[in-house]
Queue: 2 jobs
Job 1
Amino acid sequence: MDVTVLHFDTIDSTNTEALKQARLGAEEGLCVVARQQTAGRGRNGRVWVSGKDAGLYFSIVLRPKVETQYLPLITLMAGVAVHDALAEYGIEADIKWVNDLLVGERKICGILAETTETDRGLAVIVGIGVNLKSSNFPLELAETATSIEEELTAAGNSGGISGEALSETLTRYISYFYVLLDSPEGPAAIVEEWRRRSSYFSGKRVRVVLDGETVNGTTDGLEPNGALRLRKDDGEVLIVQAGDVERVRPERMEAGGRITITGRTPFGL
Ligand code: BTN
């Protein structure tokens, strides 16, 4: 994939700009990067705090050829790519379904995938926010979020990484895994790559918030399209297409049971 980068000093949201560019006919591989966002968006209508040079604010335009049923795998593919980009700097992250990157259970990166119809067909915008510094975290994030600078300092490596360097590393991994996803065995390969990098794949005791209702259970692998299988305490298996997952302390579980598909919208898209 050929990559072109549009740099902004300040922008409302790199995702909003990438959506606009996609509708104007931008080629796949166009990346929008900004030093700060004034209206950074997170999943489920949340705000993404985006102070100047405190994070990487990055969005890429994709025009996927993969079958529609596998489109949700784009967001898992992005999580795998961010995982490997961070690993290049010695940061070992976990991936929490569907696409939060955690270090020591604190969030270092979030991913927001959005779609738009364009004259050239469907475009998917993958927006990635990586915390470079912890200094401007609001109080409510200080305990639940971490940053590259904080993790490198804790490991005895002073100094952080520039957004520019990280953006280059990231585009290299996105290109690699995106091409993999488009190959005949791509969807299964992406699920497998995700499994290798995530402790949430199976056997993790979690709480999932689905349309305002909280369900407890244990993760039980992913469906071929990346949906999360959640085994409830009564043995019923829910296929979770959308929802927020939180880890809870382990306890004894029983196995067996029915399968129910839940979540109104495809996750991450
Ligand atoms: C999440 O809620 O975890 C997803 C956060 C995604 C934030 C990134 S920052 C770059 C891009 N532009 C946005 O407005 N959001 C995404």
Job 2
Amino acid sequence: MINKEIADALNSQMNFEMYSANIYMSMASWFDAKNLTGCANWMKIQYAEEMFHCTKFYNYINERGARVLIDGMPAPATEWDSPLAAFETALGHEQIVTSRINDLVAQAIEAKDHATVNFLQWFIGEQVEEEASVDGVIQQLKLME
Ligand code: FEO
């Protein structure tokens, strides 16, 4: 069993992962509308990854005997000034996710909840990949300017 503060924080991050998925699907739709199908496909793959992250939190919260709660998420943006602007927005979003994961780890350490610290280690590594992946596309797009 996890304490209520940790359960609330994990639920919040689970919902944030779903919000992240919505952002990427909205970006996919914007790219598809502009016939940039390669970028749209990149965003759809990212959408699926975010839903995988969401499900990992869902399963962990459930396994630890807490209740999974879905909350209302803000609507994602629907327009960007350019492909580069969309990917830069994505990088900024991933940096927020990284910061949230770091805060969660700190909270779990403070609560001496080592199982949750261990669970979150996967996300620490994943965020390094996520940021590097988006940044790689940004570097390519800048070369094309
Ligand atoms: Fe689930 Fe892209 O962070």
